[in-house]
TrEMBL record:
Belongs to the binding-protein-dependent transport system permease family. Residues 91-270 form the ABC transmembrane type-1 domain. GO terms for cellular component: ATP-binding cassette (ABC) transporter complex. It is a multi-pass membrane protein. Gene3D superfamilies: MetI-like (1.10.3720.10). It comes from Kushneria sinocarnis. It is found in: Cell membrane. This is Glycine betaine/proline transport system permease protein. One of its GO terms (molecular function) is amine transmembrane transporter activity. The keyword Secreted does not apply. InterPro entries: MetI-like, MetI-like_sf.
Amino acid sequence: MNFTIPSIPLGNWIEAGLDFLTGHYSNITRGISTVTQTGISSLNDGLMWLPPWVLIIAIALLSWRLAGVRLAMFSILGLGLIWNLGLWDPMIESFTLVVIATFVAVIIALPLGILAALSERFYRIIMPVLDFMQTMPAFVYLIPAIPFFGIGSVSAIFATVIFSMPPAIRFTTLGIRQVPVELMEAADAYGATKSQKLVKLQLPLSLPTIMAGINQTIMLALSMVVIAAMIGANGLGSEVWRAIQRLQPGAGFEAGIAVVILAMLLDRLTQTLRGKPE
């Protein structure tokens, strides 16, 4: 006698849930899409309005001010190479997506990280969620983005925010929880309230750790922006994807080098903001 175990229709449930959300909240997602697309277009247009050499000089000066001569020279040579390869506009588009996605991710992640650090119950709830988010393959995040926001850069932002947010939450929680107990007891002895301890003691001391989380968020955002070219996001990722489709390894390698240069520049700049440049 054969025994058949019926399969759980998990996929059908997920599709039904997405259909319900897109059907009942389409006005909200459409509004978010419009606002986000306006922000992307405005930042893109503003950066592309500047001549490349002006932006290169400005970034080099910023790099020199924050990290010294070596990073300034690297920024001049690296960005100059991107300009020379004809990849300046795609680089700006990728940079725009990374900036907006990182900004949104950090705005969401910091309050969640603070809450997880201060509330043991919320910490126990959110940690398994973050584990799930970080073990989920990156490509999967592209699937729910399309029904909500369609093909294009807005879906890329949505997927990138979800994918890149966990490190910022984790590092914020870790930084606040690592504040020495002796300092917390001293603050209590002086009659500091919870908000005063958070703003004047815990957040300042945990800032290097929080910045490490933001650094990881930026790196994950950049990697996801490249992958998001599969759903129509513009930028260096679309150059790589186009090269794959057309079997042009040289063009794909050039775009890959541009991604590496942008990633290294963003990484070094955020490391200096931590106060611990390497």
